[in-house]
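Example (one chain per record):
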Amino acid sequence: MRQYTLKFVLAMMATLPALAFAHPEHEHTNSFLSGFSHPLGGLDHLLAMVAVGIWAVSLGGRAVWTVPTAFVATMLIGGGLAVAGVQLPFIEQGILLSVVFMGIMLLASVRMSISSCAAIVAAFALFHGAAHGLEMPLNANGIQYAAGFAIATALLHATGVAFGAVVASIQAPIINRIAGSLIALAGAFLAFV
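Predicted structure:
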């Protein structure tokens, strides 16, 4: 499991040089940075995406990369649907539900098949992607904007993977349960603010 975790974290870190192009006078970087900053700007997105990484590590094996990859791929589809004008109902509710649900999955230490876990996170990713797509600036390059939010999401997953790997290495699964309860409570709180 450590081998997969290390490879995943290193792959996500390899994307960081793209941020060196962050010069405001270039439109293509504005589109990329706008997309990159979107998942980082909302606590609901942050919590759900980090929780996906933690859950993936707790599942072990191929889930470490399969579950986050399913999220990112489906999120891109959701973003594309929103840009194309497809109306996905209950976007904000779906995002908040993803935070609460992922927190509960961690709290309860739920273990299922990798394909079931990938399908669950993919369903929630449609809502996150639709939100990203709907909030894309009108003057943004869609491909660069999508690359930005996909890379930021992958880095948030990598953060969760790294956290989960540390928890696994010290053999303290109670930490995942505590993190899950805090994530679920934060999601419930966000639903009422």
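Caption: DSSP finds eight helices and no strands in the chain.
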